[in-house]
Design brief:
It contains twelve helices and no strands. The chain is mostly helical. The protein folds into two domains: 1-93, no CATH class; 95-308, no CATH class. The longest helix has 35 residues, at 158-192. The protein is globular and about 55 Å long. Mean pLDDT is 89; it is low at 301-309.
Length: 309
């Protein structure tokens, strides 16, 4: 199904089509990824993933193949296919342009690092939430997911760290931002006709997509930050940069801690106090004001040029 130029599907239908398309591509990717893993390492390696036998030969290698082939690349393929083939509006639905003041990247860098105390506060708040008994399985599933993440973050040397920074940090940032801040945020902006509503709805879906209830609030906040970065700059690369900083920093910190280069455990959620939380929020709001001002002044330039020409 494709849309002729000049026509527009209702955003609700766009959302449904994109979700079904994404599910189909991810299922196909998982089959292909599992097939490649079996062909390279045998069925025992693939079965070892489900049994969490990460010390057995090639199990982690098979896990990487299935992760990249079954999840990461399909998440990238879905928005690209949707934007180019279904809507034929890649510029609007992917926002791949670089026409924004480069100082915004410096502001993003500062905001991401200064947000660390606030993310810690939300994480601790999230951990105190109590699930109903019938949802207790969610905690077990998150613990299982954490074990898979730890297996993929086994870094024996600096080259392993660089590989993880590129795959977990950069590639994951690109594919998720194209899907969420690219396609989905555009769909909800057209659906609600309200940028703020679209950003928050997309951020909620972004956090829910990771299926980690006890990390929902900090990931929601990150999704909101990423959403405003894109909405004001007009480019998905501002949120890709922010997402990469968040993921890449976690990978590097994990490597340095496990190799005893630093003493601060990146999983420690009790590094800051309430003063740092308030300071973090205040500085973020101030930097956001500057970011918005610079980004929106960029949008006025074409109009000024037209009036003076």
């Amino acid at each position: 199904m494709t849309v002729k130029p000049g026509t527009q599907l209702h955003p609700a239908l766009q959302f449904l089509i994109f979700i079904l398309l994404s599910i189909a591509i991810i299922l196909i990717g998982n089959v292909i990824g599992a097939g490649i893993a079996v062909a390279l390492y045998g069925m025992h390696a693939v079965l070892g993933i489900g049994q969490m036998k990460f010390t057995e030969p090639h199990v982690i290698d098979a896990l990487w193949i299935i992760q990249i082939g079954g999840t990461t690349l399909p998440i990238l393929a879905a928005p690209i296919f949707y934007a180019f083939v279904i809507t034929r509006e890649p510029r609007d639905y992917l926002k791949p342009g670089f026409r924004f003041p480069w100082v915004l990247l410096l502001l993003v860098f500062a905001i991401m690092f200064i947000s660390t105390p606030l993310i810690e506060f939300l994480s601790n708040l999230n951990q105190k939430m109590v699930l109903p008994h019938y949802l207790s399985w969610m905690r077990e599933k998150e613990m299982e997911a954490q074990k898979y993440t730890e297996a993929m973050l086994q870094m024996k040397n600096i080259w392993d760290m660089i590989k993880d920074v590129l795959l977990i940090g950069l590639l994951t940032a690109i594919v998720e931002e194209f899907m969420f801040r690219g396609v989905l945020q555009t769909i909800f902006t057209r659906w609600t006709k309200n940028t703020h509503a679209a950003i928050w709805i997309t951020a909620i879906l972004f956090s829910a997509f990771h299926m980690q209830f006890f990390g929902f609030l900090p990931r929601l906040m990150l999704g909101v930050l990423f959403g405003y970065f894109v909405a004001w700059s007009g480019s998905v690369w501002t949120s890709v940069w922010a997402h990469f900083i968040n993921n890449g920093t976690a990978v590097v910190a994990t490597y340095l801690f496990r190799n005893k280069t630093i003493k601060i455990n990146p999983d420690n959620q009790h590094l800051f106090g309430y003063g740092a939380y308030i300071f973090s929020l205040a500085v973020i709001l101030f930097l956001f004001f500057i970011y918005r001002k610079i980004a929106l002044e960029r949008e006025l330039v074409p109009e000024i040029d037209k009036q003076t020409s």
